[in-house]
Amino acid sequence: MADRDQSSAAPVLSVVIPCYNEGENVPLLFGRLMPALHALGVSIEVICVNDGSSDDTLDRLRAVQRDEPTLRIVDLSRNFGKEKALSAGLAHTRGQAVVPMDADLQHPPEAIAPMLEKWREGWEVVCARRDARAGQSLKDRLFARGFYWVFDHLSDVRLPREVGDFRLMDRRVVETINAMPERSRFMKGIFAWVGFRQTEILYHQGERAAGISKFSPIKLLRFAFDGLTSFSNFPLRVWGVIGAAISTLAFCYILVRIIRTLVWGIDVPGYESILVSVLFLGGMQLLTLGIIGDYLGRVFDEVKGRPLFIVRRLYEPGEE
After folding, report:
1. Residue 219 falls within a domain, yes or no?
2. Are residues 144 and 278 in the same domain?
3. Residue 227: predicted pLDDT
4. What's the CATH code of the domain at 111?
5. Are residues 205 and 83 both part of a single domain?
6. What share of the chain is helix, strand, coil (3-state, %, to 5)?
7. Together in a domain, 117 and 184
8. Which of 221, 257, 277, 303 lies at 20 to 30 Å from 309 by C-alpha?
9. What crossing angle do the helices spanning 138-154 and 217-231 adopt, rounded to 10°?
């Protein structure tokens, strides 16, 4: 296959890095990232998306940019969340190949070289699969395993195991993702849904260089639920099955009570059974309404048609 490096005047490689309160990690990241990128021997650009950081992330990125002409900074007007910050970065890329990665150095920059080699072989998506989850507790690993199991069984899209946002994508893949209009962005699902010719490399996930994770257990749970509802309508359809099962059990119970009354006569009714039935059915109804409301909220967001993100300013190299 012809070498893709010569196919366009655009940079060969774009690296996208969403940043939210990563001030401590910025010098550590670029101290390791840039030597790895320059060693590739191809034209590059690095796009950092400042996702409404409240610390000195933007100032530190600007300081790096003064000495690094390949760095472009997309400064968002507020915090939109990692998925939309990543979408903003992808929308500003120009490279023939694009690599999203985290700013905390858990995604090793050295893994980009083997991904680039796979891309040159003709693969359109090169996923980086971690060999272990570094720095995570047993509870977090079990939660992740449970999420993948549920997602695989309830969604038509299968997520590659132990693969996050760290991957290389061909320009055609990125343009396809950028053209998708949906506002509920579960990027791992979107990456898997678009398809194209995919392969994997294996890498060792490092420890977080500095700071703490921005995802609390509640945020992770919400993120998992967002991912499921973005790619499956099973949570809506399942309540029809549950409702039919409950109705069948209730009908059988009514028959039993009628037969009991005809044979043994009327006995003293029990308030406990009535209370349990009312509370159980009421809880099921509220849960059903909550799930329907979540889907309806997504429809509401889509109908409003608001942009995914708002760029306050784009800092190009050489600007003051």
Report:
1. no
2. no
3. 60
4. 3.90.550.10
5. yes
6. 50, 15, 35
7. yes
8. 221
9. 10
The per-residue pLDDT for 99 is: 92
Domain that holds residue 143: 4-214+310-315
pLDDT number for residue 218: 66
Query: Residue 194 corresponds to which tokens in the numbers above?
Result: 């678009």
Query: What single-letter amino acid sits at 305?
Result: G
Q: Cβ atoms within 10 A of the Cβ of 169, count?
A: 29
Q: Compute the half-sphere exposure of residue 131: CA atoms within 13 Å on the CB side of its CA.
A: 7
**pLDDT given at position 50:** 92
Q: Which residues of the chain have pLDDT under 50?
A: 1-3, 5-8
Q: Minimal CA–CA distance to 62: which of 249, 283, 319, 254? A: 319
| pLDDT recorded at residue 7 | 42
Residues facing 50 on adjacent strands: 19, 75
Same domain? 205 vs 94: yes
The three-class DSSP label of residue 98 is strand
Alpha-carbon distance 99 to 89, whole Å?
10
